[in-house]
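Sequence only, no structure available. Ideas?
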Amino acid sequence: MLSGGILPIYRAGFRCNVVELKIDASQSFGGLAEVAGFRTEILKRILSEICPCKVHLRIDWAMRGYRQPDLTAGDWAKFDDLFRDAPKGISDLALQFTVDLNVPLNEYLTRILSMCAPLRVNRLEVHMNAPDIFVRYRNGGVGGQGYLRRVMRGMDIPLFARQTAQHIPTLCVFVLGLPPGLKSQWRIARSHFGDVRLDQVEL
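Reply:
I predicted one. Tokens follow.
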């Protein structure tokens, strides 16, 4: 397995095929816009030169701090195009997103579907997390996980799993992980007419 940040791996200039690639694309010195522009092109080049079978990718979409610019339509388009020319040998993909809870969750889900649509993987995992949020209650207690749980549980997980399966016709297994510790896994079967059937796996 080859593991590391996106820039160290790129600068190392690997030209050999690897079975598994674990890469952190969230490390940025220029903010989210740089991740969307410069680093998506680097990541596409890394994938084409290494041709991994399994990919673990971490992307930070959280707006941390007042200096972080919002992503523009052009920035989002670069993410949408990330896997358009991905090597056909990728069979397993695990995506880990850090998201901003001030952005509607459905917007992130739409972007994830657009990003993954060109893929022809057998297994896809999507893990979503958010920066720790601390809420101070009247009794003096401090907590944040309950807030995260309510926000993330508001999504329709079966619907998102079905939409993902419809976007990726080769998908056999879909896993969705939400904080704190919520995880669902789905087996996907298709009829001769292309209809999708989902069976949830007990974990």
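Strands lie at 2-5, 20-24, 54-60, 92-98, 123-129, 135-136, 142-143, 173-178, 182-190, 196-201.
Hope that gets you unstuck.
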